[in-house]
Amino acid sequence: MKRENTTRYAILGLLSIMPCSGYDLKKLSDMSISHFWSENYGHIYPVLRKLEEDGMVTRESSQTPGRPPKSVYRVTQKGTAELNSWLQKPVEYHPFRNELLLKIFFARDIPLSNVKEKLQRERERQAQSLETFLGIEAMLKSSEPYKSQKALPLWLSTLDLGKRVSQAIIEWCDETMKGDLHVAH
User: For the whole model, what pTM was predicted?
Assistant: First the structure.
């Protein structure tokens, strides 16, 4: 069965929050959904063109003095209807992929210090992510226009999972580094 182009729905969802240029879509994506979904310019612009062809978005040219014109995209009623239809469908399963776990699984002939170094780096990365999530949470709860958004509980829910996953990985790294990682020969 062919997979749907989920980037299409990520872009429609972001545009349902606010009209954006392709550049602004990437920035909005980075500050909102990047802890669980990533998009890059190589995906955004071709999908925007296709969405416009399909009547899901409209494009207007916007001019700021001293800057080149930019295209600002706005979701249409047809785009909103398609997004809402997709949101109500069951979630497609995507296999979990984690390079750290892959390397640890096959690391029987690699020095233990190398494995522990990887674990320490992952722990630091997750601690930084957790700090970022806590900062985003504080901003969402205290700043307009975020704290009065109808979607705030949903946004906080996705953020909560990110916080919990980061905390669990930090604990797993600590326990794994303390444990007996020696491979029996």
Answer: 0.79
